[in-house]
Amino acid sequence: MEPQLSAKAALPSAAAIGALLLLDGLWLTLGGSGERFRRMAGDLCAVRAWRPWQLACLTAAAYVLLAAALCVFAVPGRAPAAAAARGALLGLVIYGVFDLTNLAVFGRGYGLSLAAVDVGWGVFVMGAAACAGALAALGASRNEASA
Predict the structure, then answer these.
(1) Which element (helix H / strand E) includes 8?
(2) Which residues, 6 or more positions from 16, have their beta carbon under 8 angstroms from its beta carbon?
(3) Residues 39, 90: contact at Cβ < 8 Å?
(4) In whole angstroms, how far apart are CA 26 and each of 60, 75, 85, 113, 142?
(5) How far apart are CA 47 and CA 67, in angstroms?
(6) How far apart (Å, rounded) are the C-alpha atoms in residues 91 and 73?
(7) Considering all CA atoms of the chain, what is the largest pairwise distance in Å, rounded to the nearest integer?
(8) Whole-angstrom distance, CA of residue 10 vs CA of residue 63
(9) What is the pLDDT tens value at each position of the chain, 147 positions in all?
(10) What one-character DSSP code corresponds to residue 50?
(11) Whole-prediction pTM value?
C-alpha cells in the first residue's frame, strides 16, 4: 500500500516548512547573516556568478531538500521534544557536511568561525522547524479528538 498525503500529514509538513522558511529568511535578512556570510566567504561566494533566476532555482532546490528531510526523518509521529532533537541532529549532519566539505575544499579561505556559526544555525533552525511541525500535528490530533 502506497502512503498517501492526507490533511493530517500535510499540516505538520506545512508548519515545519513554513517555520524553516520564516526563520531562515529572518536570519538571512534581518539578522544580517547573509551579508556577513558574503563578507566572510569573500571571493568564494558565487552569488554574483549566477543570474537572479538561476540563484532562485538553486535556492528553491536546496529548501526542497531540507524540507523533505524534515518531513521524512524528523516530524512524523513524534512528540515535539523528540522531533526537535531529531531535527537538530539532522541540522548537525546536513550543515556539518556542507561546512566541513567547504573547509576541506576551500581551506582557510572559508573560515572555521563561519563554519561553526553556520552549523550552529543549522542545528537550531532544523530543530525549531521540526518542533513546529510536531506541534502542528499535536494540535491537529487534539482538534480531531474533540470533534
Answers:
(1) helix 7-29
(2) 67, 70, 71, 74, 75, 87, 129, 130, 132, 133, 136
(3) no
(4) 16, 22, 22, 21, 30
(5) 22
(6) 11
(7) 59
(8) 17
(9) 445 456 667 888 999 999 999 999 888 888 766 777 777 666 666 666 778 899 889 989 999 999 999 999 998 888 999 999 999 999 999 999 999 998 998 887 788 888 999 999 999 999 999 999 999 988 877 776 676
(10) S
(11) 0.84
H helices within 44-79, ranges in order? 52-69
Alpha-carbon distances of 10 from 17, 18, 47, 71, 139, rounded to whole Å: 10, 12, 33, 9, 13
Sequence letter at residue 56: A
Q: What angle do CA 91, 5, 130 make, to 5 degrees?
A: 20
For 59-79, b where at least 16 C-beta lie within 10 A, e where not — what string? eeeeeeebbebbbebbbbebe
One DSSP character per residue, 100-125 reads HHHHHHHGGGT-HHHHHHHHHHHHHH
Place of cell 506541534: 135
